[in-house]
Every structure is written in C-alpha cells, then in structure tokens.
C-alpha cells in the first residue's frame, strides 16, 4: 500500500494542472482498490457546492454538471459530517440523489471520504461498487490515507491555477482572489515578480518568457552536447569495472539524450516562448510522468535516470548562464525559500517586496525584510511560483495576502492604500526628533535591531536611541570562513562609533537553528532544539574568545558597548560565559589595552530562562527578552514552519504571562528588562509591554516611529488598564482583536492594516 501511495503522490505532484492531477487520482485509486467507480468532487469556493470534477466509471459527460450542496446527496453528507460514509446500498439511503446523466444507477456500495485541508473540506473522494456489500475496514483506511495525503496537493493545484496550453508558458489570469500567507513585514508592495530559486534543482526552475529563442536553443544544444560528452567519458571509465548488464545503463542514457522526444520537445517549448531551463523542466516532468505510468517495473525505475539527466543538462545550462540576474524596477522577490543572500543581491532601490512559500514572520529573511523596510509575505504555500516570473503582483504585508496579476479594481484599491501609507509614513517622520514618552511623561527608550553594516545610516537617522540588538551572525554568514579578530573589531568599531555615546548591544554569535554558516555545516534532526547559540560558542571557546576580544577592543574610548548572550537555558552557561568574558578582559588589560568592562545581558528566549530569570538577573546587568524564540519554544511552534504559522503569535496568553514573570523577577534584583524580539515592533503588543513596565524596546527600524506613535498616545495608566483586561482573556484571537480595536479607536488603525 505504501508503495502505491507514494507513487500516486509523486505522480500527482508532477501533474501539469489540476485536471490532470484529478485524472491520475481517479484512475489510480480505481485500479488499486479494484472498484467499479472512483470520482472526485471539489468544493466550489463561491457557491459552496460540491462539483464532480473527475471520474473513472461514471459518464464523463457528467463531469462539471453534477453539483450538490451540503444538504443534498451522499457527497453533501460526507462533507457536512467531515467523516467517511460507508453504505452497502446507497440508492436506499434517504440522502441519495439521482443524476440521470451520471450513469450511477447500477452501483450499490458507496464509500465517500472528505478531503480536508487546514480543517476545511475542499472535496470528497468517492468509490462505488456494483455489489451490495459495505467496504471493509482496509478499504476505508486506504481511502482516508489517500485523501489526507492528497488534500495539500489538491488545495495547492486549485489555488495556483492551471496551465493553459501544453508547453506554453501562461501567467495566471487576472484574478480577484488572493492567495493567503502570513504577514512577514508591514507595508504593501505592487511590483513585478522576480522568481529566485536554488540552482541545480530542476523542480525549482520557473517558466520565463524569452525574447531570443535562437540563443536559448543554442544554449540548450551546447548543454546537451556537454552532457553527452560527460556520459561518454563516464562510460569509458567504467567499461572494465562494471558487469556488462550494469554498464548498459550508459547506453540507455545516450539513447535518451539522442531521442527526439527529449531534445525535440524541449526545443519546441523554447520556440513556443519559454526559456531553455523552463522548457527543460516541463519536458523532464512529462517524461517522468510517462515512465511512471508504465506497467513494466524496469521501465518505471527509469524515472530516476530521466531526472538525473535533466539535472545534468540543467547544471550545464546554469553554468553557461551565470550572468548576474536583472531585476525589474519594482522587484517583488518570489521563491519557494528565499535566503538572506538572495535578498541581499537585489539592488536596494529596486526591492519593493518579498513573497516566500516557506517561512513565517520570525524567519530571518522576514526580519531582514523588516530591517530594510520592505513589505513581506511569508508561508504563501499555494503560490504558483513556477509561473509567476514577470507577473504583476501585490504583496500585502499586513494581512499576508498576495494577488497575482490582480484585477483592475483591486490594483486601484491597493494604489490608493499605498498613497495613504506614504502619507502616514511622512506624518510619522515628524515624530523622529520627538521623545519616546508616554502621555504621563514616562520615557521608554526605543532602540534599533540591526546586523547589516549597510543599514547603519538609516538606523542612525531613524530616531533610535541606540542599538538594542546587533545580530553579529550576519557578517559571519556572508563570508567563506570565520572572520578574524581584526576583521570583527573593525566591523564592531564601525557600529559602536556610529552610535556613540548612545548604547549599542552586540550579541555574541547566535548560529544554528535556521542560521547556517556555509563553512560550518551542522546536520541535525531537530536544529532548533540542538546545537545553537551559546551552546556552540561555549563548546568552541576559541571562537567565543576571539569575538569577545574584538568587541572589547572595538569599544576602547567609546564605552558604549553592551554584550548580550543568546540562548542561555541554564545558569551554568551564564557562569561559563561570564568567566570567558572576564578572561578576555583580563588578557587585554595585561596586553596594555585601555578598555572598560561592558555591561552584560542575557537573552530570555527559552522557557527554562523564564523560570530562572531571577537567578540570571542577579548575575548580569540587564535582561533582554527574545520573543521570537520564546514564542516558538513556549508554544512548541516552529517559527519557520508555514504549516503551523497560524498558531504562532506572541500575543498568546502564555507568552504574555511569561514576559510578566520575567519583568517581576528582574524587578526583585533591580535590573532593567528590554524586549528585542519582533514583538517589540508590533504596535498592538507595545501597548501591553508598556503596561508591564518593560524598560526599553528594540525593533526593526521600520517599526520604530510606528511604536513611538503608540507610546506618545498612551499613558502608562491606560496601558496598565488595557493589560488588566487582556490578562483575563484566554484566547489569542480575542486579545489581538481587542488590541486592534484599541488602536483603531485611538485613531491609529493605519498601524495594523494597509492604508491610513
Ligand atoms: C529572538 O529570538 O527573539 C531574537 C531576537 O533573536 P533571533 O530572532 O535572532 O533568534
Ligand atoms: Mg533568538
């Protein structure tokens, strides 16, 4: 069964469009279960009817015509109950609904299971038999397993639309329906999609229109010849080392490469307007599908060879086209998974927005987008990435909605909202020089989060009172090896000098989790619970000490350095870190350096640190709450996993209580507490943090004036009153709704949605 299931899923994933995917499903399920009929009904989003979309067994002419509401027919019953219905004699059931055009009358046994995606019934999968016997348990569980596995693929195919003509590239048609993702960075962008992808992955290659098919065909021919040459030379090398039957594989490869179907079809697709890489992907997918459907198991296994050949041709094509990417004026970067490096490659004046299929609000690429003030949507799982290159798109970073080739009225509405956003941003600029003070005169310093040298100027001009979190890992990530002491010192000096005498908090290296160093790979099953942050640097004191020395040296004469320790989950880790810091300090004094001991802080971002906040606070000068990780660990929700992104919200009552506990514990030791996670830049959350008595907030520069607006419009007393209301609420949605209403009523609705 597992094998059947795996093959079915693979075939469906390769289908060119929804119709083809459904065709594969009904055919394969009918075969595997040896039933007389298999059909799929899908939910029509507008009418909420269940429409017959594909069948193997009923009359084909009824496809698209049989439609049932929740209150009618057995299909409606399955959908309404959201559970299987297994009957020995369907026509006798009071819900049975007869459609003469379907040719359904000879079938008695009926088994329908719902297809459910994200808790919503998106369709019903039905099998039917002549005989009058219920389906056995194995059949029921098989169908349930298939429906559960297919739900994502069907929902994705449905949401991402269809390709019109085989081999031609089609951009999605004008649409008023958005694709949903998660808010990544606030703001709205209208621009041209630029699809970026990991090289040497044939499945990741997008379609792209070419203006020069001849050049693309030449490139393809050259890549093909290069692969043939490679295979010939491999074949020679192995001629004496492999038995003849295995060596014959090379002949199969050569046959495939010479066959007109592979090369000819790719060239046809290029002539139809696709670029060589996109045309190759389509041809390889077609071939994979054909091989997979073959009865002969030897031929079926050739699928892997086809893919391997495709991959080889692709890598030659990509080597030949390693020219720098051209970015449209208003680039909206689109990809399955966008890395920090991909983002950094876009000229800043051209980057208008970011849309990623994976990730969520606190993924590091979203944090980077926010730092650059660029709207971002994350976790847009249904995005038709391969067909979006060059399409006009809207990215709404407040609601997480994406519109691909939007209809005119939607474009006009968003243009109006963007104009209002620009006005709001202009109005907010007036706050830059004004103090971050509540109505009752309390000063709450606002600091900036950063980690990119290039954005120091905007950070300095943003009105930030210092740097509350400098993520030192970015300079480590963009190099080919660990940066040395001098290199690091120069880097930190630049930051400290730019802000002196204002305080700067440099965090020690926090890699692991979703932040990898290309030259220090860490392979782990569960990286967020693994070797991360301080755990790595304590295991490698040579890395830690170099960094601390560089920080201390950089601070000479400025004395605005604060050092922050990430991922502390145990008091002993703090004790060991402090001992290394003192060691570095003593060494430098011995070397005759004129430096002072900086203030040291601990990040509270792990539940164990919440419960030991007092023990930690008494040993350091300040605490800084990393709500991105704290939320992830408290709620057991991976901060990068779009499948559970809806569960990730720092306004969850458990997170609010944890922060309150940290503030109370630190107060006992008279130590200040700051929040430096993304929560600090969320205007709704800022109200609560103010009420809790947080001493300072550190956030992306783009959020700074927005939060200042909130602070200047509230008194501590009012914030406290709002906090007490929230503390009795049990549900995060209720809390967010309530806080948003408070902002709207105070005339600050523009902070939480598009427009003013
Ligand atoms: C946090 O976890 O809240 C934090 C500020 O650190 P990072 O996002 O870099 O993990
Ligand atoms: Mg963190």
From TrEMBL:
- Subcellular location, record wording: Cytoplasm
Look up the record and name the cofactor or cofactors this protein needs. Answer: Mg(2+)
**What catalytic activity is recorded?**
L-histidyl-[protein] + phosphoenolpyruvate = N(pros)-phospho-L-histidyl-[protein] + pyruvate
Q: In its keyword annotation, does this UniProt entry include Metal-binding?
A: yes
Q: What class of enzyme is it?
A: transferase
Q: Which keywords has UniProt assigned to this entry?
A: Cytoplasm, Kinase, Magnesium, Metal-binding, Phosphotransferase system, Sugar transport, Transferase, Transport
Query: Record's superkingdom?
Result: Bacteria
Describe the location of the GAF domain by residue ranges: 17-164
Q: What is its main location?
A: cytoplasm
Name under which the protein is recorded: phosphoenolpyruvate--protein phosphotransferase
Originating species: Thiohalophilus thiocyanatoxydans
């Amino acid at each position: 069964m597992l094998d059947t299931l795996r093959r079915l899923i693979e075939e469906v994933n390769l289908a060119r469009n929804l119709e083809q995917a459904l065709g594969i499903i009904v055919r394969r399920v009918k075969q595997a279960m040896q039933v007389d009929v298999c059909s799929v009904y899908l939910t029509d989003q507008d009418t909420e009817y269940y429409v017959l979309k594909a069948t193997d067994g009923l009359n084909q002419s009824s496809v698209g015509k049989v439609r049932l509401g929740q209150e009618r027919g057995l299909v409606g019953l399955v959908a309404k109950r959201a559970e299987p219905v297994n009957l020995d004699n369907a026509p006798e059931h009071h819900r049975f609904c007869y459609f003469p055009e379907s040719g359904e009358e000879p079938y008695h046994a009926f088994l329908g299971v719902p297809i459910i995606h994200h808790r919503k019934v998106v369709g019903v999968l039905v099998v039917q038999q002549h005989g009058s016997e219920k389906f056995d348990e194995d059949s029921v569980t098989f169908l349930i397993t298939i429906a559960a596995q297919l739900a994502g693929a069907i929902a994705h195919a449905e949401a991402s639309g269809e390709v019109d003509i085989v081999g031609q590239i089609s951009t999605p048609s004008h649409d008023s329906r958005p694709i949903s993702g998660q808010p990544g960075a606030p703001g709205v962008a209208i621009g041209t999609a630029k699809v970026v992808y990991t090289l040497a992955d044939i499945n990741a290659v997008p379609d792209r229109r070419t203006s020069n098919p001849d050049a693309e065909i030449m490139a393809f021919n050259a890549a093909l010849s290069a692969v043939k040459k490679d295979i010939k030379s491999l074949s020679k090398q192995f001629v004496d080392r492999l038995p003849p039957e295995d060596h014959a594989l090379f002949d199969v490869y050569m046959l495939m490469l010479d066959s007109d179907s592979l090369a000819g079809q790719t060239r046809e697709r290029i002539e139809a307007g696709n670029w060589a890489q996109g045309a190759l992907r389509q041809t390889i997918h077609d071939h994979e599908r054909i091989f997979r459907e073959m009865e002969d198991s030897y031929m079926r296994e050739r699928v892997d060879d086809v893919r391997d050949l495709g991959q080889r041709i692709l890598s030659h094509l990509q080597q030949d086209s390693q020219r720098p990417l051209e970015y449209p004026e208003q680039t909206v970067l689109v990809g399955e998974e966008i890395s920090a490096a991909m983002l950094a490659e876009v000229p800043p004046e051209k980057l208008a927005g970011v849309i990623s299929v994976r990730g969520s609000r606190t993924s590091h690429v979203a944090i980077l987008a926010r730092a650059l003030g660029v709207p971002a949507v994350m976790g847009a799982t249904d995005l038709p990435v391969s067909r979006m290159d060059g399409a006009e798109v809207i990215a709404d970073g407040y609601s997480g909605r994406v519109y691909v080739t939007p209809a005119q009225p939607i474009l006009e509405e968003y243009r109006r909202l963007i104009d209002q956003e620009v006005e709001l941003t202009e109005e907010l600029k007036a706050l830059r020089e004004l103090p971050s003070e509540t109505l009752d005169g309390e000063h709450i310093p606002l600091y900036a989060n950063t980690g990119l040298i290039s954005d120091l100027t905007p950070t300095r001009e943003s009105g930030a009172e210092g740097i509350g979190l400098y993520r030192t890992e970015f300079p480590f990530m963009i190099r080919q090896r660990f940066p040395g002491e001098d290199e690091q010192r120069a880097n930190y000096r630049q930051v400290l000098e730019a802000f002196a005498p204002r305080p700067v908090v440099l965090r020690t290296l926090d890699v692991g989790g979703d932040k990898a160093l290309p030259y220090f790979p860490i392979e782990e099953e569960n990286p967020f619970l693994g070797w991360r942050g301080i755990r790595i640097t304590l295991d490698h004191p040579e890395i830690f000490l170099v960094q601390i020395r560089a920080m201390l040296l950089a601070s000479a004469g400025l004395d605005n350095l604060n050092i922050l320790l990430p991922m502390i989950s145990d008091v002993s880790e703090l004790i060991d870190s402090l001992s290394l810091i003192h060691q570095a300090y003593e060494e430098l004094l011995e070397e005759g350096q004129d430096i002072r001991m900086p203030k040291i802080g601990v990040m509270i971002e792990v539940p164990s640190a919440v419960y030991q906040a007092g023990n930690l606070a008494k040993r350091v000068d300040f605490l800084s709450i990393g709500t991105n990780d704290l939320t992830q660990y408290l709620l057991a929700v991976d901060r990068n996993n779009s499948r559970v992104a809806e569960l990730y919200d720092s306004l969850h009552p458990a997170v609010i209580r944890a922060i309150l506990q940290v503030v109370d514990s630190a107060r006992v030791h008279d130590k200040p507490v700051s929040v430096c996670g993304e929560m600090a830049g969320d205007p709704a959350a800022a109200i609560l943090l103010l009420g809790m008595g947080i001493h300072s907030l550190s956030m992306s520069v783009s959020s700074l004036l927005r939060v200042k607006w909130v602070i200047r419009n509230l008194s501590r007393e009012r914030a406290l009153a709002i906090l007490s209301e929230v503390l009795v609420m049990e549900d995060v949605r209720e809390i967010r709704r309530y806080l948003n209403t408070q902002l709207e009523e105070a005339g600050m609705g523009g902070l939480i949605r598009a427009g003013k």
